Amino acid sequence: MSRANAISLKKPRNNLGVIMLIGAVVVALFAAAYYLYTVQYRPSGRWAFFTELRTNPETFARYAIQPGARCGDAPFAFPTRGVILGLWDQSYHIGHRHTGLDIFSGTEPGLTPIYAAYPGYLTRLPEWLSTVIIRIPSDPLRPGRQIWTYYTHLADVNGNSFISEDFPPGTYEVPVEAGTFLGFMGNFSGNPSNPTGLHLHFSIVKDDGEGGFLNELNLRNTYDPSPYFGLRLNHRENPDEIPVCEGETTIDAWRLVNEGISDPSSLLSNSLGTGF
After folding, report:
1. Is residue 26 part of a domain?
2. Which domain, by its residues, includes 88?
3. Does a structural domain hold residue 10?
4. Does residue 37 lie in a domain region?
5. Is residue 62 within 8 Å of 245, Cβ to Cβ?
6. Is residue 236 part of a domain?
7. How many structural domains is the chain composed of?
């Protein structure tokens, strides 16, 4: 029999295993994408209230927390007046993980006062236009561990600072009590052409082990603020609801600063902004 007419006795190649492997990989990729979307990148249900918060004073008042408010026996009191829309470990875009909470007020830049949530020692580095940080030598939830509370966006779009004159650039280790006036809420982002929406960004930063603080921009360098405020501030555990005190609420007797307006709700439509 000639080679041309020979019948091959090789078994046909079985591609079923390869096809199944490819299918498994595709399914895994879809599952991973779905997880990232639902857990990390899906827009929070809180933003469904965004327009209403901007236009309806009653809705804003329903969710707004007052300065000095303390949920149950939480160690921290609320540092300003506003609605919490951004939570810890929330993602605003791919590759981003939010390191604290964002509190939006119903005013304009330079009007809503910010206060220290807990006693400590305040520092403002020479280059900081809109930021202060307070060292707490002993964590109230874990005595003996040092932590830092970080407050930022206390300046206008052009970097004109709203921080109290008591804390000029280059301030180091000034003792402050809970309720100490720190400055006013602003919308400074570092880029005048792309301001944040008017809000306070607050985070709890880990100590570097040498008496300093770690880089606040890295989620791993911060703590979940939920137990410190007695609020559901972890986005993974609360992806949709606006955090409010769910039990008894008390108000610390702070000496509050006048916001300078008689009807803060009248400014809502212009104050919440469109971004962070």
Report:
1. no
2. 46-271
3. no
4. no
5. no
6. yes
7. 1
- CATH code where residue 96 lies: 2.70.70.10
Distances in whole angstroms, Cα of residue 28 to Cα of each of 20, 24, 118, 141: 12, 6, 46, 40
Ranges under pLDDT 70 in the chain? 1-15, 17-44, 47, 50, 93, 260-276
Cβ atoms of 100 and 225 closer than 8 Å:
yes
Listed in order, strand segments (DSSP E) in the chain are: 69-71, 83-86, 101-104, 113-115, 120-124, 132-136, 147-152, 171-176, 181-184, 199-206, 222-223, 249-251
SS in 3 state form for 102-126? EEECCCCCCCCEEECCCCEEEEECC
* Sign of the four-CA dihedral 225, 252, 148, 46: positive
Residues 193-214: tens digit of each pLDDT = 888 889 999 999 999 999 999 9
* Residue 220 backbone phi and psi in degrees, to 5: -65, -15
Tens digit of each residue's pLDDT (9 = 90 or more) over 53-79: 777 888 889 999 999 999 999 999 999
